Amino acid sequence: MKRYVAPLLLLASITAAAGPVLQMNRAFNALSDLVPYLTDPKAFMEKKNEKLVSEKITELQAAFKAAKHDTLLKEDLFAPSYALINENISESLGAFKNGKKDYAHWRLKEVTSLCLDCHTRLPTTYSSSFQNGDLQIDHSKFKSPYNLGIAQLIVRRYIDAKDSFTREIQDRLVKKEFIGLELPFKQLLLIETKVLKNPENLSLSLKQYALKKQLPDPIKRLLVAWTGRLDHWKGNQLLKTGFKNDKEVERFIGAELKPLKVSAGSSDGSDVDLLFASGLLSNYLFENPKSELAPQLSYWLGWVEKNLKRDQFFGSGDLFLKQCIKRYPTHPIARECLNEYRESVGFDFSGSSGTHIPKDVKKELDDLEKLLIKPLTPL
Q: CA–CA separation, 7 vs 38, rounded Å?
């Protein structure tokens, strides 16, 4: 599974209190200082940088631990990511101090995906502690428009982020650097669908890019597929109003997600549908954390984001699936969550020589199975 290296991070705080804002400022500053070492593994490994890197990871850990009392982080929408972020940072610091720098570097990169995914779950009307704060992004710390765009995306400066990703695309086209060119396109798609829910502008822009002769054919085909699905969503009232009640959510799941689960493929543009679905469901769960549909929402967010991450978008699908099992073990959908999670694990650890699941992961599956009533056939 492809990982991203990018500056990060900010989890959202629902209060304007100085405490959470201060901790998030500390976290962002620590990560900004770590960015040169995240994007340059060689520098991360060098002995002369050990003291600084260790100090910054320690600062990062302290800032996130200090945010644990934020009630938002205990809700279904954010708790899974927050728990794993702390775990990743702790594992990275321990590995770094024990000389396992490769592993430490990998665990820090994983935090990027979690933070970005977490922040894009919020409604656009909700401001982050950085968005309206005094802290400004130091552009000099970022070597490419893409990395700068990721930082702007984290702090929910969506217009600035779109400009940065567009500049990255244009620079690559001029230099004819086509490897990885789909990544800035995917970030633009994420912003306009999952976050802003605005298919019109991006559809027109992607159609224009698809006409460029120098663009590789695989990317052209991807853009054409996306525009087809973006056009399909034009005028959909849900993008303006969101779900009003549980019944609307249930209708959407039956009409859109269940058929998509049978037919979705990465080459047919269905990433667009998954991103819209993720945004709509996330926003509803944010506004209605005590909804009776919380177990089903955990399942469908897990399924949607699991598939998005496979297509190189930021997502935390497995976390939602495990949360579904742990929080709602007696609910009928918990069994489906476990089935989906087991399938995901099998996919992640499969290769040309077969499926080889590590012992600790097998133990986790066994422990999750014990939470349910009926036994499940082992993987």
A: 8
CA 4 – CA 367 distance, rounded (Å) = 30
Interval 99-104 mean pLDDT:
83
Mean local confidence (pLDDT), 139-147 = 83
Same domain for 245 and 152: no
Residue 116: inside a domain, yes or no? yes
pLDDT band for position 142 (cuts 50, 70, 90): confident
Work out the average pLDDT over 35-41: 74
Q: Which of 123-132, 166-175, 188-197, 253-262 has the lowest mean pLDDT?
A: 123-132
Q: Which domain holds residue 341?
A: 238-371
Q: Mean pLDDT over residues 130-135, rounded?
A: 46
pLDDT: is 194 or 102 the higher one?
A: 194
Question: How many domains is the chain built from?
Answer: 2
- Alpha carbon of residue 35 to chain centroid: 18
Q: Quick one: 242 and 357 in the same domain?
A: yes
Backbone angles phi, psi at 17, to 5 degrees: -65, 150
Mean pLDDT score, 153-177: 91
- The amino acid present at 311, given as its one-letter code, is D
Rounded to whole angstroms, how far apart are CA atoms 348 and 303? 14
* Chain centroid offset of residue 26 CA: 21
Core vs surface per residue 130-164: b (16+ CB within 10 A) or e: beebebebeeebbebbbbbbbbbbbbbbbebbbeb
Do 139 and 252 reside in the same domain of the chain? no
- Residue at a domain's end among 99, 131, 156: 156
CB atoms within 10 A of CB 217: 7
Helix axes 101-119, 79-97, angle to 10 degrees: 160
Q: Which whole-number Å values give the CA distances from 17 to 44, 67, 120, 220, in the listed order?
A: 35, 12, 22, 47
Residue 316 banded pLDDT, cuts 50, 70, 90: confident
pTM of the entire predicted model: 0.78
The two structure tokens encoding residue 215: 């663009």
Number of H helices, E strands in the chain: 18, 2
Q: Residue 167 — φ and ψ, nearest 5°?
A: -65, -35
Could you tell me if residue 312 is left (phi over 0), alpha (psi between -120 and 50 degrees) or otherwise beta? left
